Amino acid sequence: MPEMITSHANPQIKAIRKLSDRKERNSTGEYLAEGLRIVIEAIQLNQPIQKIIYSPDLLRSSIGWETIAGFEVKHPEKTLRVSEEVFKSITQKDNPQGAAAVISQRWVKLDEIKLTSRNLWVALHQVADPGNLGAVLRSMDGVDADGLILLDQCTDPYDPSSIRASMGAVLTRKLVKASSTEFITWVRQNRFTVVGTSDKAKLDFHTYTYPDPMVLLMGSERQGLDEKLQLICSKMVSIPMRGKNDSLNLAVATGIILYEIDRQKNTPGFER
Amino acid sequence: MPEMITSHANPQIKAIRKLSDRKERNSTGEYLAEGLRIVIEAIQLNQPIQKIIYSPDLLRSSIGWETIAGFEVKHPEKTLRVSEEVFKSITQKDNPQGAAAVISQRWVKLDEIKLTSRNLWVALHQVADPGNLGAVLRSMDGVDADGLILLDQCTDPYDPSSIRASMGAVLTRKLVKASSTEFITWVRQNRFTVVGTSDKAKLDFHTYTYPDPMVLLMGSERQGLDEKLQLICSKMVSIPMRGKNDSLNLAVATGIILYEIDRQKNTPGFER
């Protein structure tokens, strides 16, 4: 049994704590995933785990114990046992479950993506809120969409709020970062079909037949979809707004359109 | 021109600042709405405004000036001019627009609600996150749903995060608070139709024809829909989950089902 880390000043613990900062995540290429569920999933999915951190005093679940013990046997050098106090110093949760993992970020390059039959990708332009970004990933898991392209200045999918909101989908969906310019070139060269959304579009998103494969392109929370990006869209659709507002929450809007695409994909005999 | 309040210790300012606390909102029956857009909307909609607070140094928009000046002429006793510093002490926004309003909460009693043709209500059981609650209200505005019933211990729709996420929909949607027991009695006595959601329901929400009028009942973020509440549902529907997770974000799930109901309502010839 390895020794238990009880000091907040332990250099490994200090390094882990720093991962709450985006700059540190960018420079190390790592992130901290907190909570039993995501840690178990990361182990089961063979994610590039650098460290598992657990606190025996906090860890109550038997499946949690089993999974982490299994990992510890194989990778003792990658496992840190820590005191309750030390664990609480690295977690952002109110009732921590005693398990966290430092995992390497996985980014796919835009050039590596080839859309083939039935592929569904989402692209977000300058999404600002990590909760929204995480909720989009969670909805993408719901319809089993392939991956997410983050255009220009977006919030970080590996932000703790995004990871939490994604309910683990950050582990399973492909992630790409690109500039608008790179994205436009990629779409044009490959002749991919992009469907955009705008509150000014005349086409009701329910009445459009979505192509296969496609990229669903959503604008930012504040600005809606950039004009330059609208130009590469094969079609612009809108969600009807029957009340006083002219838009929905970005994650809600993305979820609504993804599930309409899903309905069409899964309705036998739906004409596509 | 009234005098400008420059002291943080001004008793009116102190009372307004306290409204960030739920207890204070409950005991006064008031809340603070921040931001130009919602203040203008509150004035235009003749909401029960107790005070308008504005800072001439921060207020840049001409429509903002006009609307607030119009209000001030009619209700000088309800208008507070404050310094930039004092305004910043009451706001939770990073870039305050210099306008806020203290408004009386408006709650409708469950007994007062009679569902009639084409009415669409939403009931949430123990929703915990004010951002989710606000986003649900925003989606309800999107489909012009009538009102929201909050069951048992819910977060406060007048929480600043909820108001912000609702984009003003908190002003325009009817709000009801009730216990599960009261709700069940109300549904039974009036024979209202309630449609519930559960990840275990076999019926895909897309394949069900929604009745008119109806209440859409959603469970909490953590627990899903309570068994006792499931018993009064005419139908339970589920959203297909094709990935690793068994649920979506609550606001996203509610928005997806609301827009399916909306699609059916607005598809000519859709059989209902």
Helix content of chain A: 25-40%
By secondary-structure content and strand pairing, the structural class of chain A works out as alpha/beta
Arrangement of strands in the largest sheet of chain A: 8-7-6-11-9-12-10
Tally of contiguous helical segments of chain A: 11
**Principal-axes shape call of chain A:** elongated
The termini of chain A sit apart by 59 Å
CATH C-level category of the largest domain in chain A = Alpha Beta
Return residue spans of chain A where pLDDT drops below 50 for at least 5 consecutive residues.
none
Q: How would you classify the quaternary structure?
A: homodimer
Specify the CATH homologous superfamily of the largest domain in chain A. SPOUT methyltransferase, trefoil knot domain
Question: Biggest β-sheet of chain A, characterized?
Answer: 7 strands, parallel
Strand content of chain A: 15-25%
Order of helices and strands of chain A: EHHEHEHEHEEHEHHEHEEEHEH
CA radius of gyration of chain A is: 21 Å
Query: In CATH terms, what is the architecture of the largest domain in chain A?
Result: 3-Layer(aba) Sandwich
What's the pLDDT, averaged over the residues of chain A?
Answer: 95
- CATH topology-level name of the largest domain in chain A: Alpha/beta knot
- The count of domains of chain A is 2
Most extensive interface between two protein chains, with residue counts: A-B, 37 and 37 residues
Give a count of the beta strands of chain A, DSSP E runs of length 2 or more.
12
